[in-house]
Write a structure and sequence with these properties.
The chain is α+β, with helices and mostly antiparallel strands. It is built from 26 helices and 15 strands. A hairpin with an 8-residue loop joins strand 1 and strand 2.
């Protein structure tokens, strides 16, 4: 075989992998666009676009505080700024090429980073596999896993703009860098300097792109420490310690403007001095290993490890003198990594795949990581065995990284994106191991790649994402935010109260300030609690909160009440035939589920000051009634109706309401007092005509009198004026 043949095979395989990765991400992009504009439906992507735009406006200073968050006080932005600064460059370049092309350019940048991750997975596996009959097949299999793993594709389709792809690049790059560590004397000085410079860029860049990246540095630290402790005469250059120290300086320089703006000097949840300090601690830990190697120049490695451990305990004791450092570090481990934060405990992507040794765990792993995830207990040992002949250090390092990446994914599903490339490395190296064992049997060796390809192509989870059709129904929150653009704005109350996971749509698409958004409790715990409590209380308390927060718009409905707001009698608001009457009768916020309507038969009061002027096209599935998943309410004074009825009689006002062509009946009611007087405050006008909600002439039902036509003018609703009613019995 010609020496050029393996290289040609490599480039052809790489081209195939990148084509598959690109095709998968383009095919799955249907839900990333809104007709007529380029707006990703994914909430975090929307806020990334906002921050990139703000960065471009004040270039080169990314904002650390957003005045429209935690309204009306403003809130700090928890994300690191590196990814958004890079996106701002793409945004400005896209706008320079074509007006309105900035968001597309940002999405293409994100797609490019995702393809880079796939390419690096391919290249790393190619280099680790070494010479052998299945080297090309090993790299091809690894690249295909990174290209098609469900967790990887879902976070990098065209139309999504998120820093998660930076996380994958961070662990892959840091892991590759740590595997190359060689603090011995046989390495040229220039090579050692290049190694440290690469480490500085990788570690510092990782922190600037994602504040949780010290975790990834901690995962590769054992590899670096092992290289130092196993080297007879280790040098500082080549150990990784200078690289991590320089990375800490780089991270500190990029973080300083953010700390100056948001004021959180030590915080695990925000870019702060904590992250650079953790990088510096990692560098000092390597320094301790280096010092122990100098103190114990000969003998088994465990002696050096003991000395290094003693130095580490001493250093750890000294860090206790810095309570801000240790306190925030432990809070990050508990609150963020172990999900003890009450908000993160409810976020889907932070939930563990690990549910014990049961079928549920296997099903969850398969959902996110498909067959390569299920096969890791087999492929990981084979990958280690494939590398063992070349040296125990590299074999143990790869084994550790495979276990660590997969362990993180079991701990939190969000880390499935980071683990996917390493699952590809495991499968590829397992193929290389098999090829080396079957080298004397060419036909069997040739069959290994075919078996791996069949596994990946037959597995429906590996091909499910590219086959997903575009959703024909609009995203309810995006639809509501687009509709909100045309609503009147009350300067005294411009804010929006929405469920936290729908807040970015109102903020970014409609440009309105929000009480809570996708950052949850991080910007302002009190604002988050207000936003959560608002949907568990009756209207008077809700109105007090709206006044205090200067809010004039509320988004609510099944999208946030279902499964989140329980009542004394029932956990969820629906049953198969429609409403769960027990829930309606006992949940204080029940009217928000049904356009603010009351239910006279259950004595459920109507909302008196919330005008339903938007209804989502999407409806609740699995029940017989057609109920919009989301309503948009405008706060109004409410028209006033009053009259006479038999003492104790229940007076009901019915207004026909049509939401997206679906007929409903909105009801308000009041009981006459002992003197027969009754009064109603009505927020819904008759004759309303918005893009999604229309109303017709109402009907007033008074016991002892025939039904009477009733008009409720919109002007009266907005001004809080009295509306005349027809003659009623005394």
């Amino acid at each position: 075989m010609s020496p050029a043949a393996p290289r040609l095979g490599k480039w052809l395989a790489a081209a195939l992998v990148l084509a598959v990765a690109l095709g998968a991400r383009l095919a799955a992009s249907g839900n990333g666009f809104t007709p007529g504009t380029f707006l990703p439906a994914e909430s975090d992507s929307l806020y990334h676009l906002r921050r990139m735009a703000l960065t471009a406006e004040r270039w080169p200073r990314p904002p650390a505080v957003d005045p429209l968050l935690a309204w009306p006080d403003g809130g700090a932005i928890p994300w690191a700024a590196g990814f958004d600064a890079l996106g701002a460059v793409a945004l400005m370049a896209g706008e320079a090429v074509h007006p309105g092309g900035g968001a597309l350019a940002v999405s293409l940048l994100h797609l490019g980073l995702a393809l880079l991750l796939v390419a690096l997975t391919f290249e790393l596996t190619w280099r680790l596999a070494g010479e052998g009959p299945t080297r090309v097949a090993a790299a091809l299999a690894a690249g295909l896993v990174a290209a098609l793993a469900p967790a990887a594709v879902a976070s990098s389709v065209l139309g999504i703009v998120d820093h998660h792809v930076v996380e994958g690049l961070a662990l892959l790059g840091l892991g590759w860098w740590a595997l190359l560590a060689d603090p011995g004397e046989g390495r040229a000085r220039r090579a050692r300097l290049g190694f440290e410079a690469a480490g500085a860029l990788l570690a510092g860049g990782a922190v600037l792109g994602f504040s949780g990246s010290p975790l990834y540095v901690a995962l590769v630290l054992p590899l670096l420490a092992g290289a130092v402790l196993a080297t007879p005469r280790p040098r500082l250059l080549g150990s990784g310690a200078p690289g991590l120290a320089l990375g800490a300086l780089l991270a500190a320089a990029g973080t300083a403007p953010l700390v100056a703006e948001h004021g959180r000097a030590w915080s695990f949840g925000f870019p702060s001095w904590l992250q650079p300090a953790l990088l510096l601690l990692a560098a000092l830990a390597l320094g301790a290993c280096l010092l122990s190697a100098r103190l114990v120049p000969a003998g088994p490695p465990w002696r050096r490890l003991g000395v290094a451990g003693g130095l580490g305990v001493l250093a750890g004791g000294l860090t206790l003198l810095a309570p801000a450092l240790t306190g925030e570090g432990l809070a990050g481990l508990g609150g963020w990594l172990l999900r003890r934060d009450p908000w993160l405990a409810r976020v889907d992507e932070f939930q563990p795949m690990w549910r014990g040794l049961s079928g549920a765990t296997a099903a969850t792993v398969y959902r996110y990581l498909a067959s390569p995830g299920l096969l890791l207990p087999l492929t990981a040992p084979l990958a280690v065995a494939a590398l063992a002949p070349a040296g125990w250090r590299r074999a143990a390092g790869v084994g550790w990284l495979l276990a660590a990446a997969f362990g993180l994914a079991l701990l939190q599903a969000r880390f499935g994106r980071v683990a996917a490339p390493w699952l590809g490395v495991a499968l590829g190296l397992a193929l290389a191991w098999g090829g080396a064992r079957l080298g004397a049997h060419p036909r069997l060796a040739a069959g290994l790649p075919l078996a791996a390809a069949a596994l990946l192509l037959i597995d429906p989870r590996m091909t499910a994402v590219p086959r997903q059709p575009a959703d024909p129904l609009p995203d309810g929150a995006v639809e509501a935010a687009l509709d909100l653009r045309g609503w009147p704005v009350d300067p005294a109350a411009p804010g929006v109260l929405a469920p936290w996971d729908l807040g970015n749509q109102a903020l970014v698409i409609a440009g309105r300030p929000v009480v809570a958004n996708g950052f949850g409790s991080y910007p302002d715990p009190r604002a988050f609690e207000d936003a959560e409590r608002a949907f568990r209380v009756a209207e008077p308390e809700l109105l007090e909160l709206l006044s205090r927060r200067r809010v004039g718009v509320v988004f609510a409905g099944a999208a946030n009440l279902f499964g989140r707001v329980t009542s004394a009698a029932a956990a969820i608001p629906f049953e198969k035939r429609g409403y769960n009457l027990a829930w309606l009768a006992s949940a204080p916020s029940a009217p928000l589920l049904i356009a603010g309507s009351g239910v006279p038969a259950l004595s459920v009061r109507h909302a008196e000051h919330l005008l339903a002027r938007f209804a989502a096209t999407r409806t609740v599935v699995g029940i017989e009634r057609t109920i919009p998943v989301l309503w948009g309410y405008e706060r109004v004074a409410g028209a006033r109706l009053a009259g006479q009825a038999p003492p104790g009689a229940r007076v009901v006002l019915e207004i026909p309401l049509t939401a997206r062509g679906r007929a409903h009946t909105w009801r308000a009611w009041a009981d006459a007092g002992p003197d027969g007087r009754w009064a109603l405050t009505v927020p819904l006008p008759t004759g309303l005509a918005t893009a999604s909600v229309t109303t017709a002439e109402g009907r007033l039902l008074v016991p002892g009198a025939p039904p009477a036509a009733q008009q409720v003018p919109e002007a009266a609703v907005r001004a809080g004026r009295f509306v005349a009613v027809g003659p009623t019995p005394r």
